Amino acid sequence: MQSFDVVIVGAGISGINAGYRVKESTNKTFTILEARGSLGGTWDLFKYPGIRSDSDLHTFGFPFHPWTNELSIADGASIKKYIKDTAEHYGIDKHINYHHKLVSANWSSQSRTWTLDVDTDAGKKKICTKFLVIGTGYYDYNKGLEVEIPGIQNFEGKVVHPQFWPEDLDYKDKNVLIIGSGATAVTLLPNIAKESKMVTMLQRSPTYIMPVESIGSLKKKMRKYLPLTWTYQILRFLNLFLSWLIYFFCMTFPEAAKKRFLKIVASELPKDYPIAPNFDPSYFPWQQRVCATPDGDFYQAIREGKAEVVTAHIKNITNNEVQLVGTEQVLRPDIIVTATGLKIQLAGGAKVFVDDVEMNLSDKHLWKGVMVEDIPNASMIIGYANASWTLGSDATSHFIVRMLKKMDKEGISQAVPRYDYSAGMKDRPVLDLNSTYIKKGALPKCGDKGNWVPRSTYLRDLYEAKYGNITTDLQLSYNK
Predict the structure, then answer these.
(1) To 5 degrees, how large is the angle CA 163–CA 380–CA 432?
(2) What is the value of pTM for the model shown?
(3) Band of residue 441 on the pLDDT scale cut at 50, 70, 90
């Protein structure tokens, strides 16, 4: 049986980040288990037209390996190449085992080790480790979120989910209907509009869609006069600060934020184009995730008459029509794209046991936003909803390294977060969003006090990871 000090599950951006931190800062043996045949995670899975980042790459990129492409908002293929180049540059790729899917993990309090059941191309195998890192993200790679769409089974045209986009799908000169209003739908619309006859985005309720520069004017000037490393570090700090400032403004002055957001939207739409009902959300900015549109390409497609947005509920779908509630308007698409969200899944679907007792992760609380209540020697990497995912994964990776060093130094063989149910804490969501797929999902919870509060901002969480309290509510057992 193979044995490692640390096993990281997932070779996406979180797994590569964790692998680098463990390799750079410790002398631990480690491996990365990847269920698929390639690294990249999200950026290897999704192939739909225009797949791109929804965050700027200066904060989304690894802090130890600067993003040097001139684009701040980049396409999926470029991001995957960047992740691959990073893994190769630091030798992390040599630690990846592909086609290794974690099926279950069982902690033994007697031996103080995890035993992992893994499916591989060569059959089943077992791996032992002292510390487990779950870096698989939070959604199901094999199944999208199931939502009820009345009559969808009657439709005789093509029905496509973005997560499983057919490479040979021909939408040239076709009428395409996108059901949904999240980041995927906002990305698809302008890219499909380049070749289709018309694209309609059908939403039950509107979302905030804000234009961002793909190549900022400040970046152009800095690249001209400053060394590349200086440019990256300055832009990274500025984007960190500005994203925090915008979020703080939205949370503190929601009415003013909404007014400002809608003014920007109005400036992007054709003259005298009505804001309501299609672009005036019922909630305030950042109560749900704000969608980005690089250089306003979403609104450009509308201005050019290649796309439209309709706000209504679906009454029924026939063989060739989509009938809407409360209106006589009928949509006649050739292709329907169901961009209705992701299905939440933790640990890549693997079952987690402690002394042969299965743990329901969604019933548990996150300690320091990293370790799971009642589960020893394990961490879960969850990023931010209101900032780049990588920021959260990097703060988590710093915490993991600190915990590993503490355990070595003090002879600790088992570290278990214990939630005090008598302390009167209230549950809080780990991702503070009202999005449908988040509310329908089964994520762990957080508390409202001490080491159980949710993550807040990268700089604060990075400080906590490096210098904060990592003993309160943590039950420690020492080497026998």
Answers:
(1) 70
(2) 0.92
(3) low
